Amino acid sequence: MALSEAAEKAMFTKGMEIHVQQRNMKKALEALNSADEILAYKVGSRSRK
User: Is-contact 39 48, C-beta < 8 A?
Assistant: First the structure.
């Protein structure tokens, strides 16, 4: 595998990881019901399962 192909694959994989994390964080944020819950939300804490 050429270096450029390896770099492209690594960027794609990282991009997908970020996409999944953002999707999970969005679901977690949508489940919050009050301003206090939103203000107390720690990014990444509830989005990982």
Answer: no
More reliable by pLDDT, 45 or 23 = 23
CA torsion 30-33-36-38 (nearest 10°) is: 0
Q: How confident is the model at residue 45 (pLDDT cuts 50, 70, 90)?
A: low
Instruction: Give the CA radius of gyration of the chain.
Output: 16
Model-wide pTM > 0.90: no
C-alpha 4/C-alpha 10 separation (Å) is: 10
For residue 5, give both structure tokens: 């192909």
